[in-house]
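Dear Dr. H.,

I hope your travels went smoothly. While you were away I took the liberty of generating a structure for the chain from your last submission, since the lab meeting agenda had it listed for discussion. I wanted you to have the full record in hand beforehand rather than looking at slides cold. The sequence, exactly as received, is reproduced here:
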Amino acid sequence: MEQQEQSNLIKEISAPLYMSRGWMKFLGILSIVYGAMLVFTIVGILIAWLPIWLGILIFQTASSAEKAFIAGDKAEMVKSMNQIKTYFTISGLLALVAIILSFVFLGMGLLTYIFSAMHIY
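The corresponding predicted structure, in token form, is as follows:
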């Protein structure tokens, strides 16, 4: 009886991820395609692996959530939650790096403008 209760609990907890599995798989495929398109650019060759990795990760998250919901499998649910944690951690770090780099380039642009304005007069 306890096994059945645990299975029902896993199904209940995994239901939101299960219901959004189609969108997660769609986002994963789009991310993989985006990474593949980046390979064709000069700078993109260096960073193309990131969106491909994130796409695979979110696709696997959807698959694990689906298995957890259908079978009521605790291990698959934990795997799904770990994968989505990794996805959000990497996405957050990338967003932080992008914000820092934008401030660095903004500062460089301002310094370039200031120094070029000094030489005009």
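Two observations you may find useful: The chain has a mean pLDDT of 92. Residues 2-120 form one domain.

With kind regards,
E. W.
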